[in-house]
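Why do we care about 3D structure at all? Because function follows from shape, and shape follows, mostly, from sequence. That is the central idea of this module. The next example makes it concrete: a single protein chain, its amino acid sequence, and then its structure expressed as tokens.
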Amino acid sequence: MSFKLFYDIKELVTLKGAAKKDARRVEEKDLSVLKNAAMLTYRGNVLWVGKNSLINQSFIKKISKKII
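And the structure:
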């Protein structure tokens, strides 16, 4: 498995607003900043982005069961 967990990210810029409009005519206002973030990837693909405080062992087990 190639899971990678990035955590304790002070600020993570996401394209949350752009995704809502299918990435058409992306503007600066479409960017979101998530503070104290974490990101879980699998084989180079982002699986999850959220608050650092949500990461624990049961969360990782739950995510990995959905993949495998």
